[in-house]
User: Which sequence fits this backbone?
């Protein structure tokens, strides 16, 4: 065993020793607690070194060096804060700002913009350079994602996230020099491109060059319309994150406060997408058991994540037969609301305005799929709000969510088992399905409801679960579509055999969705520490529930008895299932 | 346990359409590129061939290269738009290049350039609607003694004055008509 090689250098005249291969930025942070400002850098993405904000002075070098990308060497002398370097850094940020709209006051990310923070931190107080500013067409009619290239600072974080984390590679820098623009191929709109609408570019962007397509106006309008019966449904992951927007500690469950806030906003009924998460499990586990008995179309691929469904249709259409035909919990709920619920309360479906509160931008796209729009043009889901949009509406109304009393979801579409809560995190759908499937296979509920083996926020897991003496289930869990590619390619070409593969498009699952709150200070996008805390909130809620398995949710049982018939039956199929088609442009994987 | 039966794959169809958008030679070239470890490093080579044949890089051709080389389309168009050499619009039958190098410039090239743009009704970098002329500028063709210089196709015109411009254009319009006529006759 050779000893790990180390390098000794001085940073701001302090002698430090760090492992070989450490960058200047890492060494300064690790040893001296100095956080050098940065924009394009992200530890989980490839190195770009394009923003130049993190420059430092290195003795003997004729130019300033980007501390994010330069590894330390023996005897290196670094100054992170000499007067010259501070001035240069400020100038660089000022030059970025001078090619940026002066629209902070009206910008979506005002107060939550990394460029704004860096400008403040580096001391930009006046703008001395006035030059030509780039002008580009703004794309504001996306179904899910809008694009404003004028706000882009070409840091490339979206490009790298889209390519490296999601494996989609929809974005690239087009053109060169002053007219360089980040866009899909041919400068196409996002909807016409290979984009899967996951919204991770929005999360990755330090400014507001990417934003979700705003639906708040449509929701305010419906809330103010006396003819509309406005109904909310909230996804499992919202309760774990909305508190962050109101200063609650990260990972604080806020289910009851969320319900109260929605009532105060004027929603007539507040239902829980959790209910249909349970329903999804009953349908999907039934589907799995059927296929398992016949030994066909395995592995079963989960279909709750609309970003993943888009990816499936554009990148892996040959696997469409393997995908569960279950609609997502949101679309199941909307279908029940426009059919079952409409009948129950005697309101015409077109007068029921269904708002999905989702952690997800791809859900906006899903809600506009022709499959989920009735013959008369009435969509099952009328509007989808991201967690961020809802938080803004609550703030706009003047409500402090953190101080609200707890409310309860309306019955019966508001009751759920713990299995539904964990849908919001990677591995959750798998665990929920296993809770039911194991019971159906063995005849008895699993001894331990918690399949901790499939839990973790890491992107890729393969597990073998011993169900009984004769049966071992092989399952795969992937979040982040690059990880999904690995699993799918293994299943397709590598000869690996799985029974079920759960895919969630976003890193960490819905808790890391493209519509979730921007990371609070001290955290960054794709941050595992943040994702783990959010996931913990969901496991806490699950652990505290009396009913932990979807098939034991009494409201689900009675819905089948009084309305749906049998799981996987004719009515259930008509209302709760869907189909997929290969879509163009075909992605390169 | 069977993994999957392929019934919904559109890969072959996408491939067929990609092949149709290119020529057999270009497809063959891309096919040889795909053999090695560094397939994507041949992207520029493939684009060169496409432009050489078609005169420009059309949307269909860019998508076809992306699919056959299995390089994401955003990357292909990123490269195509980065290099000055690559064109995304079709060029005219005759490329008019006005030298705007120092010598030509001081001898009045700008007036010649303006007159060309006026007579053709297009800006620099554009192509006339009839597809006959593209107007472009260059920096020095190495014949400063003839300044100002205009190059049309591979023919160099020296000491060009703005008043000669209509005649020059007329000459090529007639040439095009003659060529077309000959082509029709030889076909018949």
Assistant:
């Amino acid at each position: 065993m050779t000893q790990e090689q180390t390098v000794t250098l001085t940073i701001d005249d302090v002698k430090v020793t760090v492992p070989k291969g450490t960058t200047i930025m890492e060494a300064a942070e690790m040893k001296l607690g100095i956080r050098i400002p940065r924009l394009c850098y992200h530890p989980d993405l490839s190195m770009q070194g394009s923003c130049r904000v993190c420059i430092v002075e290195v003795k003997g070098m004729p130019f300033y060096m980007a501390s994010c990308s330069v590894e330390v060497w023996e005897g290196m002398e670094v100054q992170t804060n000499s007067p010259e370097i501070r001035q240069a850094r400020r100038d660089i940020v000022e030059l970025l700002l001078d090619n940026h709209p002066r629209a902070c006051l009206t910008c979506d990310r005002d107060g939550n913009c990394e460029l704004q923070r860096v400008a403040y931190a580096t001391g930009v107080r006046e703008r001395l350079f006035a030059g030509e500013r780039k002008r580009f067409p703004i794309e504001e009619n996306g179904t899910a994602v809008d694009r404003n290239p004028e706000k882009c600072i070409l840091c490339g974080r979206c490009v790298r996230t889209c390519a490296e984390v999601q494996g989609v590679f929809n974005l690239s820098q087009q053109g060169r020099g002053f007219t360089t623009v980040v866009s899909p191929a041919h400068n196409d709109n996002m909807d016409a491109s290979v984009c899967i609408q996951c919204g991770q570019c929005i999360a990755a962007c330090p400014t507001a060059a990417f934003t979700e397509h705003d639906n708040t106006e449509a929701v305010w309008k419906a809330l103010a319309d006396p003819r509309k019966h406005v109904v909310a449904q909230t996804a499992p992951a919202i309760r774990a994150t909305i508190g962050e927007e109101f200063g609650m500690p990260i990972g604080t469950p806020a289910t009851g406060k969320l319900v109260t806030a929605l009532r105060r906003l004027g929603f007539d009924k507040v239902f829980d997408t959790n209910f249909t998460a349970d329903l999804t499990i009953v349908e999907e586990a039934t589907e799995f058991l059927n296929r398992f008995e016949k030994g066909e179309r395995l592995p079963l691929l989960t279909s709750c994540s609309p970003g993943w469904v888009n990816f499936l249709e554009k990148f892996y259409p040959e696997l469409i037969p393997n995908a569960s035909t279950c609609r997502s919990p949101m679309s199941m709920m909307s279908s029940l609301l426009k059919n079952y619920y409409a009948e129950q309360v005697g309101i015409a479906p077109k007068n029921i305005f269904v708002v999905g509160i989702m952690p997800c931008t791809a859900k906006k796209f899903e809600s506009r799929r022709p499959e989920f729009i009735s013959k008369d043009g009435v969509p099952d889901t009328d509007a989808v709000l991201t967690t961020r949009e809802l938080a803004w509406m609550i703030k706009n109304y003047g409500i402090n969510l953190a101080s609200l009393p707890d409310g309860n979801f309306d019955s019966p579409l508001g009751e759920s088992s713990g299995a539904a809560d964990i849908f919001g995190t990677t591995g959750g759908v798998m665990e929920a399905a296993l809770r039911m499937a194991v019971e159906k296979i063995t005849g008895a509920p699993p001894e331990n409801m918690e399949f901790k083996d499939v839990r973790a926020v890491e992107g890729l897991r393969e597990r073998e679960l011993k169900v009984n003496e004769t049966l071992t289930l092989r399952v795969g869990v992937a979040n982040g579509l690059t990880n999904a590619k690995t699993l799918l390619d293994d299943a397709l070409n590598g000869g690996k055999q799985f029974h079920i593969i759960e895919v969630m498009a976003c890193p960490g699952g819905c808790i890391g969705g493209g519509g979730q709150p921007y990371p609070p200070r001290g955290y960054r996008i794709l941050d595992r520490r943040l994702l783990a805390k959010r996931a913990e909130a969901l496991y806490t809620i699950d652990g505290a529930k009396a009913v932990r398995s979807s098939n034991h949710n009494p409201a689900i049982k009675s819905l089948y008895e009084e309305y749906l018939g049998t799981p996987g039956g004719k009515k259930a199929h008509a209302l709760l299932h869907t189909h997929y088609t290969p879509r163009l442009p075909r992605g390169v994987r | 346990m069977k993994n999957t039966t392929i019934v919904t794959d559109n890969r072959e169809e996408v491939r067929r359409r990609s092949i149709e958008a290119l020529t057999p030679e270009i497809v063959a070239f891309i096919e040889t590129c795909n053999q090695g470890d560094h397939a994507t490093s041949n992207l520029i080579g493939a684009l060169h061939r496409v432009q050489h044949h078609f005169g420009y890089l059309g949307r269909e051709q860019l998508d076809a290269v992306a699919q056959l080389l299995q390089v994401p389309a955003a990357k292909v168009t990123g490269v195509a738009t980065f290099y000055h050499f690559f064109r995304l619009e079709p060029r005219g039958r005759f490329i008019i290049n006005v030298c705007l190098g120092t010598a030509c410039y001081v001898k009045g090239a700008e007036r010649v350039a303006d007159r060309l743009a006026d007579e053709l009704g297009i800006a620099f970098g554009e192509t006339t609607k009839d597809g006959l002329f593209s107007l472009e500028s260059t920096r020095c063709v190495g014949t400063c003694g003839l300044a100002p210089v205009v190059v049309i196709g591979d023919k160099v015109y020296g000491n060009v004055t703005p008043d000669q411009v209509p005649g020059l254009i007329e000459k090529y319009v007639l040439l095009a008509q003659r060529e077309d006529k000959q082509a029709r006759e030889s076909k018949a």
Remarks:
- Strands of chain B lie at 94-99, 133-138, 150-152, 155-157.
- The two ends of chain B are 65 Å apart (CA to CA).
- The longest strand of chain B covers residues 94-99.
